[in-house]
Amino acid sequence: MTAPYADVMVVSQDAAVVDEVQRCAAGAGRGVEVLGVVEASARWPSARVVLVGDDVLGAVLAAGPRRRPDVHLLCRGAPTTGHFRAGVSLGAESVTALDGAREWLTGLLQERAAGPPGRVVALLPGSGGAGATTAAAALAQVAARRGLRVVALDCDPWGPGLDRTVGVDERSGLGWREIAASPGRIAAASLAAAVPRHEGIGLVVGASDALAPAVVRDVVEAARLGHDLVVVDLPRGQVALAREVLARCDRALLVVRPSVAGLAAATRQVSELGGGLDVVVRRGGEGAAGVGDEAVRSATGARLVARLPFRRGLDESVDLGLGPVRSRRGGWARAVDRLLDDVLHGDLTGPEVAR
């Protein structure tokens, strides 16, 4: 029987490169397979992380390996323009000098070789008061009750606050201010350990102004490597931020109020973001009809995946610190539960998801 491939494949004949990678991999608890260019070509698609030494860079490029994620070029000295050009040709995610890279490399191996990443779902309000934050908090609550590792990212400095919505009055730990002020990228393990948690939900909150898309991008990538589910609450009107996050999402949900005004605003959102959104309808007060499902689908051109019904006492539940899913019973809880199934597995279709 063929032995399973190691987590990390090193393509290099430079003893210094190999020794440093093996040292970092041991610290990260990962196995290393050191291969020549010919052997590496056969196993190129299978390793979780591929590290290429610049001593064999020309031979690797000549072999014409297929582009894949998690390829990194390691240089004995400072990278030159030639290194960066070759890295582009190789499809490398980074070109890094070996000297002084131990902490970065150890963190990379911990993250990238840790197993399959979690799923990322982003929620956007189709209009003011659509209830995207409430829906995001509800998904996080239900996922945590299922025993999933969940983190919720509150990217809306003008919203009601994910922390308050799930029932947190005071928080301590890592937030957006600290992340934005820290140099470099945050590692997945560091993020998971440092964020405040409430009833199984990790929270990244505290944005006082519009967040830089690059900062949010890095946090999303780190979060998905340390959690089963990442819930991102996005603000209205931040198109660059939304596009950066949506490009890295498994699902993107536009929360729509089924009124003429709400639908008009939601349609503008879809136009600005270029599609790729599924629609979740949030019903208003009990007995409020609003526009029909067909009008929602026609106006947005998007798939309607869920209806979240009106729930009496929802605001009171949030005010009491119990979160939006106070009970596992009732139409609201069942709707959120089925929406989460759709987010996690993508095996449900049509508006019947949340009846």
TrEMBL record:
Residues 125-161 form the CobQ/CobB/MinD/ParA nucleotide binding domain. SUPFAM superfamilies: P-loop containing nucleoside triphosphate hydrolases. It holds the Pfam family Rv3660c_N. Residues 12-117 form the Rv3660c-like CheY-like N-terminal domain. NCBIfam families: CpaE_hom_Actino (TIGR03815). This is Septum site determining protein. It comes from Nocardioides daphniae.
